[in-house]
Amino acid sequence: MDYKYTELNYAKKIYENGFQSEQHKPTELRLVATYMRRILDYKPKKLREEMYKWCECNIPEYKKELYYKMINSSIRKACQKGSMLTNIDRILFYKYEMDYINGLFIKEDINPQKESVYSNGCKKILFTLLFKMKANKLLAETKSNDEDFEYTGKYFKGGQKKYTELKNLAKLPQKVRINEDIIHTLWINGLVSPMYNGLIKLNFMEELYELQNNNKEIDNTIALEIKEYDSIGLYFDYYNKDKKISFCKECGKIFKKKSNRQEYCSNECSKIIDREKAKKRMKVKRELGCSI
Length: 292
Prior knowledge:
Elements lengths: L6 H11 L7 H15 L4 H15 L5 H15 L12 E4 H8 L16 H25 L11 E3 L2 H11 L7 H11 L4 E2 L4 E3 L1 H12 L7 E5 L5 H8 L5 E3 L6 E3 L10 H25 L1
Antiparallel strand pairs: 1-5, 2-4, 3-4, 6-7
Helix pairs in contact: 1-2, 2-3, 2-4, 3-4, 6-7, 6-8, 6-10
């Protein structure tokens, strides 16, 4: 999951439990420093002392001279004006947005009269890109000091890594190629325009902004409320009544069922329920034993 949408929760988790990723230590140190500065309200001198203590406790074989620059950099960024930690609690999708995406006819390259075999995948990518624009809008407007600021994002910048992340977020099949199959098809349909170095212009966002601004009769009914940000494509399938998509009865996470009888997203959630059922059975047995 992209932590930038839940910075506050992620920073608290690192502060309380230590590093979550060995590959992203500089970023996680910055988050810890910002958590101490903005949430715990440590003044710069106290912040420096606590950062060194935290590193001593959470970095094996810690040596101050090796981490001096990294720690100082994280402290400096945490103390900068405007530094903050934000959480996006939910992302809302409206019916007119879902109607727009579902109503698109995604033509194939060779025969414009025929619907592309990648049509559903293209729509899931559009839905996922719309999610990212909505999330970026909330982040930008939350962090802006300008009361009249309005974010109107319509570009996606990514190399191969970003496009792979986009594909995984949209929950596309492994065999589908994100660039050759999906982005190319969207380009043929005029929904995106490739520019340079992985940058694409999201033409479909301009159409949605136009709908939002110029059509007073659009349906603003809330169609979806997304609170988990690592399986966006599954929400699109759920909205379109895919019977394989369900929500875990233990943790509430959306997941794709492997069988019709599956009720939990993982073995861990299933084991939690089994333990709770076992406790209830034992309680009933004890109560029956006491009543005899």
